[in-house]
Amino acid sequence: MLCGIGQAGPLALLASCIQFTSPHAYLSTTTGLGYSARAIGGAFGTAVLNAIINGRIAAHYAPAVGAAAVAAGLPEASVPALVQAMQGGKQGDPKVGGASAAVWAAAVAEHRSQYGAAYRLAWASIIPFTVLAIIAIALLRSVRELMTEKVEATVEHVVDEKEKHVT
């Protein structure tokens, strides 16, 4: 819930904040720059999350899955073949010598555990940014006085017949 508030709040309020604080002459430019910054931030964030996930998997996956399989009865010589099969999505591959149904069940359970731990670690890294975003939202000034029926830049000019001038 914390991450949802911290990510959705700033992203949803970005356009409103930009449009209420920018001079009308630069409204489209600032809005475009804001959305571009949002997209670039998302790309960098995704790259960082993938690096965290892949780093955790690279460091812990093979030893943990191999140990779980050996504890379930797999010969140690078959561990590299089992890990390769698991990483290739070939669970239950008959080419893995000595792998029984219990071995595959243990390997799959540990596979899921390792990926779960990697994703938890990645999402935990977002918490500081989420807290900063929530604080930034809390410090925004109110725009209540700007929420009126007044249109500062009309789309079309209307000629007032009585006064013969453009409004």
In total, how many beta strands?
Answer: 2
- Could you tell me the mean pLDDT? 83
- Main beta sheet strand tally, sense and closure: 2 strands, antiparallel
| Strand residue percentage | under 5%
Spatial shape: rod-shaped
Question: Over all CA atoms, what is the radius of gyration?
Answer: 28 Å
Task: Give the helix level as a range of percent.
Answer: 55-70%
The stretches of 5 or more residues where confidence is low (pLDDT under 50) are none
Structural class: mainly alpha
Taken in chain order, the helices and strands follow as HHHHHEE
* Strand order across the largest sheet: 1-2
Number of helices: 5
Structural overview:
By secondary structure, this protein is mainly α. The chain contains 5 helices and 2 strands; from the N terminus they run αααααββ. It has one domain (2-148). Strands 1-2 form a two-stranded antiparallel ribbon. The chain is rod-shaped and about 95 Å long. The mean pLDDT is 83.
Give a quick summary of the entry:
With 167 residues, the chain is mainly α.
Helices and strands, with pairings:
Elements: H1 2-21, H2 27-71, H3 79-87, H4 101-124, H5 127-138, E1 159-160, E2 165-166
Helix pairs in contact: 1-2, 1-5, 2-3, 2-4
Keywords for this structure?
167 residues, 5 helices, rod-shaped, mainly alpha, 2 strands, two-stranded antiparallel ribbon
